[in-house]
Design goal:
This protein has eight helices and 28 strands. By secondary structure, the protein is α/β, with parallel strands linked by helices. It folds into three domains: 169 residues, Molybdenum Cofactor Biosythetic Enzyme, Chain A (3-Layer(aba) Sandwich); 85 residues, Molybdopterin biosynthesis moeA protein, domain 3; 71 residues, Beta-clip. The strands form eight sheets. A six-stranded mixed sheet has the order 7-4-6-5-9-8.
Length: 411
């Protein structure tokens, strides 16, 4: 049995490169950009009016002019107009191009309009006031988004602004989530007394969707030959397999045995942690150069296998602790975890890492973790009462109020 740190290092060390996809920009949210985005023109591309009002020549105001004949209206989205007489004005709308021969905008709130004349009630006017000057934000060909940036809503807006309707991103791993067990029935079925509805697979699907991964799912019976036949195909067709259940010591826990017979290398089985001790992790044989050359459409070198214990809290925490950083390392993302302080003393007897469920509070800008102990790794409902797991190290049994530890946050 290995430690949590050892398991983590082994898993992160199996990160992979999955190639590059070109996708519609609106579908790139949460993905990693694989090109540099530059400005296709100055930002803003013209001297832009910032407020509804009138545009004048500041020189006319300096010469004592306070009432201005309105020559017309410059609307947003209309071609640039020209002020014919510098002692006159043009009404302008927010977002419009600044008319020629004007260099200041006075908002409607500071003027009175009567009989086509705009009279201002300000004591001073400064050239370029209320004007967003052309190129002030960025110049043409300036870098707007660097390669390897994780795309958020902010980047989506920039991609739209520069007309990047398609964008290059890191390809997501192709993932299959497999549940096993004859005791499991569908969500829409009424279980018998000895049965329960499938839930772990949907928790995993949802956890992966946070990472923008659209995983496939399958449910297999506790039958060794059926498991072997199906898993053999999954290993050929997917980059990553996530199992839930059948990895402990029960008579029908065939997954480790089947994976071994299919040539999947076990990198470890059992971690010194609670919950989730029976966790199994391995990888299929690395494909040879000739095998990769036969399939020009893939950069897949091997299939990584995460086989989580079947108890729902075990599955949940193992996904957060191990699959998430494996994925983030593969995508070149940060692996840093936030920390929180315990709200009270806590003791845990066995000498192993403990992932304690906690509710999170903010106190004076500090994240506080309030223990929510629940009823063990089978208490799925208790996940709803918590926000995160706080990782308590294995080298001690007592933890004091105010001590800070890493958290695996899921809300």
């Amino acid at each position: 049995m290995i430690t949590v740190d050892e398991a983590y290092d082994i898993i992160v060390g199996q990160s992979q490169y999955f190639g590059v996809d070109t996708v519609p920009f609106i579908e790139s949210l949460g993905k990693v950009l694989k090109e540099t985005i530059v400005a296709d023109r100055d930002f803003p591309p013209f001297d832009r009016v910032c407020m509804d009002g009138i545009a004048i020549s500041a020189a006319a105001f300096e010469n004592g002019k306070r009432s201005f004949l309105i020559e017309g209206v410059q609307a947003a989205g209309s071609p640039q107009m020209t002020l014919e007489n510098f002692e006159n004005c043009l009404e302008v709308m927010t977002g419009a191009v600044l008319p020629k021969n004007t260099d200041a905008v006075i908002p409607y709130e500071l003027i009175a309009i009567e009989n086509g004349m705009a009279t201002v009630s300000v004591s001073s006017v400064v050239s370029l006031q209320n004007i967003h000057v052309k190129g002030k934000d960025r110049k043409i060909n300036d870098i707007l988004i660097h390669e390897n940036t994780c795309i958020t809503a902010a980047e989506i807006g920039v991609l739209a602004t520069v007309g990047k309707s398609y964008v290059k991103v890191l390809r997501q791993p192709k993932v299959m989530i497999i549940s096993t067990g004859n005791e499991l029935v569908g969500v829409d079925e009424v279980p018998l007394e000895h049965q329960i509805r499938r839930s772990n697979v949907f928790s995993l699907v949802s956890l992966l969707s946070v990472l923008q991964i659209k995983a496939d799912t399958a449910h297999l019976p506790d039958d060794k030959e059926s498991l072997k036949e199906n898993i053999s195909q999954f290993l050929k067709n997917y980059d990553t397999l996530l199992f839930s259940g059948a990895v402990s010591k029960g008579k029908f826990d065939y997954i480790p045995e089947v994976l071994n017979e299919l040539g999947v290398e076990k990198l470890f089985h059992k971690v010194k942690q609670r919950p989730g001790k029976p966790f199994w992790f391995g990888r299929s044989a690395v494909l040879s150069t000739s095998e990769l050359e036969e399939d020009k459409n893939t950069s897949k070198k091997q299939t990584v296998v995460f086989a989580f214990p079947g108890n729902p809290v075990s599955t949940y925490v193992n996904c957060l602790k191990y699959f998430y950083p494996w994925y983030k390392k593969s995508m070149g993302m940060s692996l840093d975890l936030p920390i929180a302080k315990l709200s009270e003393d806590f003791a845990f007897k066995p000498s192993m890492t403990y992932f304690l469920q906690v509710k999170l509070l903010q106190e004076n800008g500090v994240l506080i973790a309030v223990p929510q102990t629940g009823n063990g790794s089978g208490d799925l409902a208790n996940l709803v009462e918590a926000d995160a797991f706080i990782e308590l190290p294995e080298d001690r049994n007592e933890f004091k109020k105010g001590e800070a530890f890493p958290i695996l946050r899921y809300r």
